[in-house]
Amino acid sequence: MRKILIIGATGQIGSELSAKMRELYGRENVVASTVKNAETENLQVEEPFEFFDIRDKKRLAEVCDQYRIDHIINMAALLSATGEKNPMLAWDINVNGFLNVLEVAKEKGIKQVLTPSSIAAFGPETPRVNTPQETVLRPTTMYGVTKVTGELLGNYYVKKFGVDVRGLRYPGIISYKTLPGGGTTDYAVAIYYDAIRYKKYTCFVREDTKLPMMYMPDCLKATVDLFEADFSKLKHHADFNLAGMSFTAGELAAEIKKHIPDFQIEYKPDFRQAIADSWPQSIDDSAAREEWGWKPSYNLATMTEDMLTQLEKKLK
Asked: Which of 62, 142, 219, 254 shows its CA 20 to 30 Å from the CA of 6?
């Protein structure tokens, strides 16, 4: 049976992924972890759980030894908008922390490392429509720079040291269970909450801003599918393009209005608009489809219906 360590297990994706992996592989076989700080100090956790900083390689190695870990999923990261406010911290966590994971995996013979990349790895010189798997990677944010670096490091460790490193370029992730954590696509989650609570929303990107998005159930499915994929069939490793759906902020608002007719939206772009404008509008994920059978289940209509239904229950 696999022994899995999930680092960054209290974030938007990490919290739901931890529950999913425990459901699939047994609670006792999945060790969740996060850094101890003011936000997590009084966190109610389900064991097995460890508090440590990904930048502390010695402690990471100790946890791997303690639980006989043979698979690591690294979800620890400082996201795009937050990373722009503190770029050196973003580099330290996203690159130096991930390098610790790779080194521990190499030294201890960890069977697999899975870590997400992001559409933030792309930049304004990247083709924005149907963005290819192999393309220009010149991001304009520190978050994007760290994700390109992580992809290169992951692929290097596969070729140089034989470590099984896998990664997905996540689009914006939308969930009703967990709030986003400082990303440029946060509006696509906040809009649902405000639509139910206030029947209005002020959007920080333009109405015509189109970005790739994915509903959390598809995000979890993609992550598990890649986690389970046969390594011998993978031609790519740390940098799989991943797509679910693409829509503009205006199209999202229009879909919500079908369910909440008096919903109103106002557009007041801020600094995150420039970040969004540097990212793709749609993604070519044919490599993921061909190499490990990826296929999304949700589109804008089915996601919106489920989001509003679930949030109505949650916010009562």
From this structure: 142
Backbone phi, then psi, for 265, in 5-degree steps?
-135, 140
| Alpha helices (runs of H) in 170-278, residue ranges in sequence order | 187-197, 216-228, 249-259, 272-277
Domains, in order of start, for the chain: 4-171+215-241 (3.40.50.720), 174-214+245-283+298-314 (3.90.25)
Whether this model's pTM surpasses 0.90: yes
The candidate with the shortest Cα–Cα distance to 237, out of 173, 288, 303, is 288
For residues 215 and 306, what is the distance between their CA atoms, to the nearest angstrom? 10
Q: How far is the C-alpha of 155 from the C-alpha of 157, rounded, in Å?
A: 5
| Residue 176 annotated among the catalytic residues of the structure | no
300, 191 contact by CB (below 8 A): no
At 38 the pLDDT is 66
Q: Edge to edge, what strands does the sheet with 240-241 contain? A: 117-118, 168-170, 240-241
Contacts of 181 (CB under 8 A, 6+ apart): 11, 12, 79, 82
Q: Tokens for 266? A: 């106002």
Return d(Cα 107, Cα 161) in angstroms, integer.
10
Q: Which residues of the chain fall below pLDDT 70?
A: 38
Among residues 175, 176, 297, the alpha carbon closest in space to that of 244 is found at: 297
Catalytic residue among 143, 176, 187, 267: 143
Kind of pairing, strands 240-241 and 210-215?
Answer: unpaired
Per residue in 242-274, pLDDT (tens digit) is 999 999 999 999 999 999 999 999 999 999 999
